[in-house]
Amino acid sequence: MRVPPTTLPAEPTHARRFGKARTAQASAVLEDYAELIADLLASEGEARPTDIARRLGVSHATAIKAISRLKREGLATARPYRGVFLTEAGERLAARVRERHRLVVDLLVALGVPAEAAEQDAEGIEHHVSDATLAAFSRFLKAR
Amino acid sequence: MRVPPTTLPAEPTHARRFGKARTAQASAVLEDYAELIADLLASEGEARPTDIARRLGVSHATAIKAISRLKREGLATARPYRGVFLTEAGERLAARVRERHRLVVDLLVALGVPAEAAEQDAEGIEHHVSDATLAAFSRFLKAR
DNA sequence: TGATATTTGTAGCCTAGGCTACATTTTTCG
DNA sequence: CGAAAAATGTAGCCTAGGCTACAAATATCA
Predict the structure, then answer these.
(1) Contact at 8 Å (CB) between A108 and B108?
(2) What's the fold here for domain A26-91?
(3) Which fold has domain B95-143?
(4) Which residues 6+ apart lie within 8 Å of B10 measured at CB?
(5) Does B65 touch chain A (CB under 8 A)?
(6) B74 CB-contact burial (10 Å; exposed 0-12 / middle 13-18 / buried 19+)
(7) In this complex, is the C-beta atom of B52 within 8 Å of any C-beta atom belonging to chain A?
(8) Intrachain domains A26-91 and A95-143 with the same fold
């Protein structure tokens, strides 16, 4: 059964949506790293690759490669054997990620999701929440 | 400032959550493909790699490689130049993904997210929603 | 039919994000 | 101090998911 191509829209219907989702996810890991580094700097006074790796459950080699990407993106700096630091851009990113994470968790909990599952799901969900959706979450939480 | 390692928990605090999110995302793309193939089979009677690629906004080579992964995972079959078909497992996956997608979109809309943004965000969010969270979404939608 | 279009498939390259294994540097402590 | 332990960095390998370029098969139509 061969259908003439005209029955399929020339404009890629899903493309815009899917494309967005893909590239968004590319930076998801860096967002996690930035957030964790900020946490460690606040709570421990320093963020060492080994601690970062342990907290994320990856090998230290993996963490170091990710840190290299952070540096390349201008989000972090590091002095060998002296830990990792965030640039201003990195701090801003971390703050935004933390705030967004909190909001997503709060929303899930408000909807009746058990705290444990809420934390876990938020980790994956938060990277795909647009500003519009975030605003809606915020309004909903305030309104109730 | 070197802090004794004992101040950091031996158990990787974030590891469980992050690890889950990562491997979950590995199958996200295959879920998208399965859903789209089911759509095409229903609406067009066949699912050809070229149409799949156009709808997803990727090159046909990329689509073909993803289809190979689907076959390897036992989710799809394909006869050269005769399109792609879903196995029973593939059909089940597609049905689950479609249902989940609808639920996520409905929830976002119910929370006041504009339809356009809801569709877009759902594409990324849906792959990270656990059964517990899905159930909560469902309850919330019914209750209002 | 036969030339042209389209579709499909293959090959090779890239980056991200994982890993292990090994080498090096720094810190700790007897 | 100097040896052992810990942390760091490097090299090399893997898969997923993208891409372009080229080759081959199939459809279309003059």
Answers:
(1) no
(2) Arc Repressor Mutant, subunit A (1.10.10)
(3) Diphtheria Toxin Repressor; domain 2 (1.10.60)
(4) none
(5) no
(6) exposed
(7) no
(8) no
Per-residue pLDDT tens digits for A86-107: 999 999 999 999 999 999 999 9
Name which of B28, B46, B22, B31 is nearest B91 in CA terms.
B31
Which tokens sit at A13?
Answer: 């219907």
Query: What CATH number does the domain located at B25-90 have?
Result: 1.10.10.10
Q: Residue A144 has what pLDDT? A: 83
Q: What's the CA–C1' distance between B27 and D26, in Å?
A: 33
A59–chain B Cβ distance below 8 A for any pair: no
Whether A77 and A71 have beta carbons less than 8 Å apart is answered as yes
Structure tokens at B128: 């990270």
Strand C positions within 7 A of protein Cβ atoms: 6-12, 16-21, 25-28
**pLDDT at position B144:** 83
Residue A15 has pLDDT above 50, yes or no: no
What the block records as the tokens of A14 is 């899903």
Least Cα distance to B42 among B94, B105, B101 occurs for B94
Domain map (residue ranges) of chain B: 25-90, 95-143
The C-alpha atoms of residue A66 and residue A33 are separated, in whole angstroms, by 8
Verify whether the Cβ–Cβ distance A123 to B128 is below 8 Å. Answer: yes
Tell me the sheet residues that pair with B78: B84
